[in-house]
Design a protein that fits this description.
The chain has 12 helices and 27 strands. By secondary structure, it is α+β, with helices and mostly antiparallel strands. The protein is globular and about 100 Å long.
């Protein structure tokens, strides 16, 4: 599998000088001998845009707040707001911008913040994790999603449908037509055996509790065998759950990587069942209750020995010492598993928050009509729940739903659990999409580029009662290359992206490169008239940075960068403006990658374009494979 780390852009050493000759009246501009790179002086101010939702005690959005009502802290230090926008029912209700301080660079020298229209456009991913869904879980969710998609999205918003099982599946690419997603929902089914982990947990737990009461048939003739058999099952179950958690968190990281570079607002509606992160720990605890050193059925330390009875008080001291080692090893194994599970969920939430991705999580199981709880389980509901059931504090995987809540709370979203009123839950999420505040500020530099953000309301908000402020708690300052790399990766998911430079990407005929790969020549052309050119003696110069990658939702190749200086003799300038700058490269790709994304940045002004080229049913690769087989 190919992956890309967007915070470590691979840089090509190729530097190409493009020479324009007056002797050629038309056709593409070709590359000549390399020349020294051109360095320009540029002033850049990075702005952070923070989406903030304020709700009252009933979870309803609060409108009408002003810039003076908010205070923003970066790493516990206050920062000044430079922009403030209030959105009510999807419309801007107020736009305020601070006047630039004296001595600030001119607007032309500062990277402009995204337009309000582009910044408010929502990219919503409906993400259905089939791995934890039990039969029948999706029925009511599907019926609630259909009106939600028709009513919650604006005309410019985009929505995508993704399912997760053994791999990520793109059911519907980003579209402004919600009906296309609605039409796909009825075809989504729970993964066969999707509730297997929950069923296994219940079965093992029941056996352990029967063993505690002396009623199980497992190893009834040999208490030692009975204890060891159940312990083996608990350990095997923990290993299986650990593998599922790695699958889940790995796929979520993959999704975040793919959408981090999308323009505007980014949100994920994560539909799942109970993520069984806490179940292995519960099985270990149940085993210790049944066979531990303080149980009446204490497991002997040596095969064939009998239980201690009386909580082990009459056992041999040497046996008790060995039992203590076994007991402590069990506790350490359970703690290690929980720490690893916590870390995996935390890594996902931190990656999402720093990338500006908000997660809303929905427990599709809700209150199942039968068999929805294992013995001793407790129904919990997250913040924003429509069901009046108890809540637990975030930051702990003490119950099977805490990971869903953690993912939402740590990214500024809502989490709904313990209820089957999915229409009400989705209505609350839709209100967040339409009513919010956008706070803009110039962040300070931090050591690792990541800062913790806290937004709070000033005490001067009168008559509002107790209000809750939700937002993502992390921001990450990214350099221009990282932003361009993220944008290139995200382009693989979109039918089109902004292309003001009118970049054209033309893949050529692929050639076989080993058994499972292809070499694909690619030509990238840009109209010279679209580029910023600077007089430099007898020539005019420009400079492009070109970022390329290939892949799709479930497989992304590395992002490469090439710097392309442009040099034009002054005498040829006017006759050359109708031509195109051409840059050619060759990509070596695995057979499964059939889409190329390219971002071209004009380094002499804050302007960039992204273009995508695909083979369309892999027609070129299919033809190349046919030609290769004939030879």
């Amino acid at each position: 599998m190919y992956r890309v780390q967007t915070n470590r852009v691979q840089t090509s050493c190729a530097v190409v000088t493009v020479a324009l000759l007056a002797a050629y009246a038309s056709g593409p501009v070709t590359a000549e001998a390399p020349a020294a790179d051109v360095v320009s002086q540029e002033i850049e101010v990075r702005l952070a845009e923070l989406e903030v939702v304020v709700v009252d005690g009933q979870g309803e959005p609060v409108a009408g707040l002003t810039r003076e009502d908010f205070e923003v802290l970066q790493d516990s230090q206050p920062v000044e707001l430079t922009h403030f926008r209030s959105m009510v029912a999807g419309r801007a209700n107020g736009v305020e911008a601070a006047a630039p301080p004296p001595g600030s660079p001119s607007p032309a020298a500062v990277r402009a913040s995204p337009s309000a229209e582009a910044a408010d456009r929502l990219h919503l991913v409906i993400y259905i994790d089939r791995g934890y869904l039990e039969p029948g879980d999706l029925k009511d969710v599907r019926q609630a999603l259909k009106p939600f998609l028709r009513q919650a999205l604006g005309p410019d918003d985009r929505v995508m449908l993704v399912t997760a099982g053994h791999r990520l599946e793109l059911e519907q690419s980003f579209t402004t037509v919600p009906e296309l997603v609605v039409s796909q929902l009825d075809d989504i089914r729970e993964r066969p055996g999707g509730g297997r982990l929950a069923n296994e947990y219940r079965s093992i737990l029941q056996d352990m509790r029967r063993a505690k009461n002396g009623g199980t048939d497992i190893g009834a003739r040999d208490p030692d065998m009975q204890a060891r058999a159940l312990l083996s099952q608990a350990r095997a179950y923990a290993a299986e759950v650990n593998g599922e958690l790695h699958r889940t968190t790995g796929q979520l990281q993959q999704l975040i990587q793919s959408i981090a570079g999308l323009p505007g607002r980014r949100a994920v509606l994560y539909v799942s069942g109970r993520v069984p992160a806490a179940y292995p720990r519960r099985l270990f605890d149940a085993w210790q209750e049944a066979f531990g050193r303080y149980s009446s059925n204490r497991m002997p330390s040596t095969p064939g020995a009998e239980g201690g009875g009386d909580n082990g008080a009459s056992a041999d001291p040497a046996e008790l010492a060995q039992d203590s080692v076994n007991f402590d090893a069990m506790a350490a194994a359970a703690s290690s598993f929980m720490i690893d599970a916590e870390r995996q969920v935390q890594d996902v939430s931190e990656r999402a928050s720093s990338s500006g991705v908000v997660f809303h999580t929905l427990d599709a199981g809700g209150l199942r009509t039968s068999g929805f709880l294992a013995a001793g389980d407790t129904v919990m509901a997250g913040r924003g729940s429509t069901s009046p059931v108890p809540t637990v504090a975030p930051g702990s995987l003490a119950d099977s739903l805490a990971s869903l809540r953690r993912l939402a709370w740590d990214t500024g979203g809502r989490s709904f659990t313990g209820s089957r009123d999915f229409r009400a839950a989705l209505s609350r999420i839709g209100s967040d999409f339409r009513t919010f505040y956008s706070l803009g500020f110039e962040p300070r530099e931090s050591k690792d580029g990541t800062s913790r953000i806290k937004v709070r309301l000033r005490e001067s908000v009168p008559g509002r009662g107790k209000l809750e402020v939700r937002h993502r708690p992390l921001i990450q300052l990214k350099d221009r290359d990282t932003l361009a790399a993220e944008r290139t990766v995200s382009a693989l998911l979109l039918e089109e992206m902004e292309n003001p430079l009118e970049v054209v990407v033309s893949p050529g005929e692929p050639r076989a490169a080993g058994k499972k790969g292809w070499r694909v020549p690619v030509a990238i052309t840009v109209p010279l008239a679209r580029l910023a050119l600077v007089a430099d003696g007898r020539v005019h110069t420009g400079r492009l940075s070109i970022f390329t990658t290939a892949g799709g939702l479930d497989e992304v190749g590395p992002v490469t960068k090439a710097v392309v200086p442009v040099r034009i003799a002054n005498r040829d300038l006017l006759t050359s403006l109708g031509r195109r700058v051409s840059y050619e490269l060759e990509l070596t790709l695995p057979s499964g990658l059939e889409r190329i994304a390219v971002t071209v940045r004009d380094d002499f002004r804050p302007r960039s374009s992204t273009a995508v080229a695909s083979w369309g049913a892999r027609s070129l690769l299919d033809r190349a494979e046919t030609d290769s087989s004939r030879r």
